[in-house]
Amino acid sequence: MNIHTPDIQQIPERDDAAAALDVLRRWAKSATPTEILELDASVARLLPGESGVDYPAFSRSYPEGFAVDESYKATLPDLQNGPSSLIKGAHQQIQHVGISNFRLPIRYRSRDTETPLLLETSVTGTVSLEADKKGINMSRIMRSFYTHAEQTFSFEVIEAALDDYKTDLESFDARIQMRFSFPIKVESLRSGLSGYQYYDIALELVEQNGVRKKIVHLDYVYSSTCPCSLELSEHARATRGQLATPHSQRSVARVSVVLDCDAGPLWFEDLIDACRRAVPTETQVMVKREDEQAFAELNAANPIFVEDAARLFCEQLQADHRVGDFRIVASHQESLHSHDAVSVLTEGETFAADSLDPRLFQSLFHVG
User: Fold this and answer.
1) Which residue among 81, 162, 303, 364 is least packed, with the fewest CB closer than 10 Å?
2) Percent of the chain that is helix, strand, coil (3-state, to 5)
3) Cα 231–234–240 angle (5° rounding)?
4) Helix H or strand E segment including 211
5) DSSP 282
6) Based on the number of CB atoms within 10 Å of its own CB, is 247 exposed (0-12), middle (13-18) or buried (19 or more)?
């Protein structure tokens, strides 16, 4: 005789769960709070709004008068500074971790005026993170920078901020970068008008293995007339009486220099002047007809390929004893081709690299 017993391991279906939930809810309505607690305190959640049930009722209004004291702060969880057992993924050192595009106003000194300029500045601050540490408290980077932000700018102020958050975060390597747009009034070529040219500048203070470097990055925007196109246009005029125009285009060079701190200050204006000496066809601010004609003549007198531009900038930087290692990234954003012409020239170990950021040249595109 075969006896079949029910399969007690059968997984309930949704309808079974719904029926059980209905039974549990009907029982809870007639049970006392003590009976509910003895079974399971979470059953009280099935009876929203029921009085006398010992289950937390949370406030839904913001506590305007609540004040935080030291004892309360000591109870707050801090997962980022937790033990290494909380680390997810590989227990590996991270070279840079921090914040990007933290903005605040900073004062900068100018070579040509005594009054500091107050400019909106985007700050990136990072530190290295050892393999056995979970993370960093990123607000400390901002707090450290605010401590020094009211002072007139100098690299010493950045160094003080870097010292603070490097100590606070117990890190070996650190980096601060500040990006801003620096205005300089420039005159037109012939009309006597003047206007403000804005230069994208980034200042970087890097400490690695106990060695600090001060770096200035400058984007210089200019016009480049193709020498080949110029010669072909002149050939058409001379041999066939055919009017032809050479092509030129807006071009950008990102010049990055390591400062030799023992050789005296390198002002922003000094670096801009060096770029103008190298490639004088800087784009113009104020232009009347006589200025436009002058600009056409200036371009015809200074036709350059992208290779020429890199070497001309290099020549100026090599001649300045205040400049150490440097890098020049040039992009001629072609009006003839559907692609750009680019070049990269480096001197020294600081900027030497086997690989380039895939979007490096795209970042050199400047809109008016």
Assistant:
1) 81
2) 35, 30, 40
3) 130
4) strand 211-225
5) B
6) middle
CB atoms closer than 10 angstroms to residue 202:
18
> What pLDDT digit, counting tens, does each position of 135-161 carry?
887 887 788 888 887 777 778 888 888
CA-nearest of 224, 215, 294 to 255 is 215
Measured CA to CA in angstroms, residue 303 lies from 70, 222, 246, 341, 361 at distances of 68, 12, 10, 15, 22
Interacting residues of 143 by C-beta distance below 8 A, sequence separation 6+: 165
Distances (CA, A) of 314 to 80, 308, 333, 347: 45, 10, 20, 9
Residues 356/321, Cβ–Cβ less than 8 Å: no
For 159, residues 6+ apart whose C-beta sits below 8 A from its C-beta are 205, 212
Kindly give the parts of the chain with pLDDT less than 50. 51-52
Query: Cα(169)–Cα(137) distance, rounded to whole angstroms?
Result: 7
Measure the CA–CA gap between 284 and 275, rounded to whole angstroms: 15
